[in-house]
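To assess whether the prediction recovers the assembly geometry, we first specified each molecular entity separately, as shown.
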Amino acid sequence: MTADSQLQLNSKGQLRHFLSLNGLNRALLTEILDTTDSFVSVGEQAVKKVPLLRGKVVANLFFEASTRTRTTFELAAKRLSADVLNINISTSATSKGESLKDMLQNLEAMACDMFVVRHAQSGAAHFIAQQVCPDVAIINAGDGRHAHPTQAMLDMYTIRRHKGGFAGLVVAIVGDILHSRVARSEIQALTTLGVAEVRVVAPKTLLPTDIEGLGVSVFHSLKEGLRDADVVMTLRLQKERMHSALLPSEHEFYKRYGLSRDSLGFAKPDAVVMHPGPINRGVEIESEVADGVQSLILKQVNYGIAVRMAVLSMTMSGQMATRIKSS
Amino acid sequence: MSPLPSVDTLLDKMTCDLQQLLSDRGLENPVMVGIHTGGVWIAQALHQRLHIQSPLGELDIAFYRDDYDQRGLQPQVKPSSLPFSTENRHVILVDDVIMSGRTVRAAFNELFDYGRPASIILVTLLSLPGRELPIQPDITGQQLTLEHGERVKLLGPEKLALKLVTGAA
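The predicted structure of the complete assembly is given in tokenized form:
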């Protein structure tokens, strides 16, 4: 059992925090996907609510800007009948760990059952999970460059739903891998769920030095990297995380690594196109592809609510089990 | 204790009773919904025998249970699927066994989140004692009393049959 799984799982192997996919086995990831199937059908009800988290308080702590992720977490919690607090924190107050701790102590006093946390520093969610009282469930909505586990799970759900499963798939992840927490979580999820091959396609300047250690094949040529791929995932250039000149220009990036109708042609004819969003049209992806028949980008957003409902309810369930045991 | 009844015999009786009830109340064009998993099997059999027009609906009440705080979310939740509108329709709600009544309570809540039915007719294959809520089936195949420590289980989906299970749950 890795340190990560020790922190995230209770004694029965159920989730009590959701921080990263590191150390979570295939059975648990599959359970999240199966539970998501049921929550998708809740979206078809006239009253799109189930009473699972009625009376529970979920606080969104977003230390970094986000519209899409925060909105889907809010919708997910509300569809579970939870009470949602949106706490916007200016980045200036959180540059030191001490301020974070002070803030958390204030929030603990509000008797929240769950924090959904997005933070610019890698490891922030883990830090909070270890520092707050064990009764508060922590959900990582993205920490620095480290992890974005719910995004990875919704992408896995999208793949499973549209490709029928994971066995035999070749998945290519294209773009700014170095700065992408999404990429790291995707790679963990894809390898745990047993796809045939995970490829990363990027210039050397946008790849972490230890990338091969993650069990992926590395390509610097888009043509070679996409050849016969079943799934193509493009990533946004994370300019806000770049601190040196890593690219000649966005135009240059698009020429060599942009997903256009032509470059998509290197992949299998029935390949699907995914992007965690927000997309930069004309930088990493051409409009025609983003809006085209092979694109699942809007479906990803749609499934994001159901996946987060699954994660929130499973994690709260695991927390309750821990509380009962200790009471 | 007498041997468990044959499911087919019970289904014949229930079909008869249900047709009578629908006729007595003048209920036309009802829809049918089974509760996962045994209730769906029973509903499939009744749906066929009664030649119900609309496709069969299936409810998984996992998200509406009253014991989430105590037991958490159980795995193997199946999606619910109601391929018709329940608004102003007569809904025949089917389960294999009714005992405490809590499953049916959860099913009512879930059904009402889909729309407002004109009425609900509750049909169960078996009715066991032990109600914890004042809920009774309109139609039941048989009332059964078990010895202490005994449970009854419906086997399926092919060749539906009842089986007695003794010992711890």
